[in-house]
Amino acid sequence: MKIMIATTLSGLLWLSTTASLADMHEDTQQLATDKQCMSCHASEDETPRAPGFNSIAAKYAGGEMRGYLVDVVMTGGEDHWGSATMPETDERPEVSEEEAERLVDWILGMHKGE
């Protein structure tokens, strides 16, 4: 009986975690849309304007550059990816540090590994 209860509780926890992760993904994707990230970045491939999120995730896999990426999301600028230039802060919605961290974690989470 104890094993059945533990298995049931484990299954419910897994479902709850899965639902929470899906909600968090949708919330962060909406944040990316609201902050106009999606207007230059595609999730799959590079666009003429900017690298895709999957390309960014692959380039910065491992997370060592997470802080750098958070700064880039917050401040914009150039020299981040070839000739692509991210709009300066006065040309796009303001992104707080907490929002930038969420966006960077979401993007890095897209890396599928080799």
Automatic annotation (TrEMBL):
Residues 1-21 form the signal peptide. Binds 1 heme c group covalently per subunit. Pfam families: Cytochrom_C. This is Cytochrome c-551. GO terms for molecular function: electron transfer activity; heme binding; iron ion binding. Residues 22-111 form the Cytochrome c domain. Keywords: Electron transport, Heme, Iron, Metal-binding, Signal, Transport. It comes from the Bacteria. The keyword Lyase does not apply. Heme c binds at C37, H41, M86.
